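Input record (one chain):
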Amino acid sequence: MIELSTLRAAGLVVGLITIAFALVRRRSLRNGDVILFLIAGGVLITVSLTGLVNGVLAYFAFDEGSGQRILGATVFATAALYFIALRALLENGRLSRRVAGLIEGIAWNDFRNAELAERFAGKAAVVIPAYNEAEGIGAVVDRIPETVCGLETAILIIDDGSRDQTGSAAQAHGASVAHHAINRGQGAALRTGYRLMSYARAAVVVTLDADGQHLPEEMEGLVRPVLEGQVDVAHGSRILGHAERGELSREIGSVVFNRLISVLAGQPLTDCSNGYRVIRADVLPELAFRQEQFHSSEFLLEAIKGGFRVRELPVTVISRSHGTTKKPASLRYGLGFANAIVRTWLRAGKLAPRSVDPPPPVVLAAAESGAED
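The corresponding structure, as predicted from the sequence alone:
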């Protein structure tokens, strides 16, 4: 007869409760979760009613005495917790992707139902991610030129879950607005913008910040080489141009990350954190963006490793015109930026460079012809 100690009795009760929970909630739980609960309950009952644990520990040379059994139990418990934590991380990632897809899908559906796509067809689409920028977004929109290199511009603000009147302020100044129900980050906002502009068949997509740090007056210098077919991506660089001095920690971090990403990309890059860029819209479906926040480095690595022609051009970056930065503290920002670089390189680094046909020169010719009319 098995001696049912207090510990074994407790294990037996917990095992039975676990199995009962799985059976009662089987319709609301996923199949994998039901199986996991049943296995866990079964193991608890088996351990409580038999000497299975002693046999397993002895098999792995955790003999009785000198705390060997306790050490063995700790090792197996740690391994079990590791697999549970790993499963939780995978599940969290899956849920995060589903939430992101839902939010972006709602924005895309609203954009389509509002019939906004025709406003951007064949134009230079200016996509601006914005979060709580109601105070200054109107001034940024007003400074966007009506035409650039003879090509008409159209403005799309991605209101990334703002808690103020960012969207309304942008619309009051003539911009189209796509909304995220909750804040997801600059990378997620730009991902939505890229998807919408690809759907709308824009000619090129220009991205810049909503805080007034980028000068719309310099847009032509980035757009022209893309329209002329010299490059697929024109990426702004404050190092080649001009920038007001920022925090010392961020200045040092920029130097380190620029050198790192230059090595990984296989070409020199001077400003991997700049969000002022121009890209051919037909290139966007070829790129995979997954970063919610640290998008600039991901963009550069994806484009370069995908075989697209990327060139840095000088731009000016000034202090934000209003409010405070939305970026996290320096340490957290640095860790997040490094994580984005490494993860993107591990993913995009496996892509074989491919030959990309330049756009037909008629794109720029048509634009200039329209300007003369």
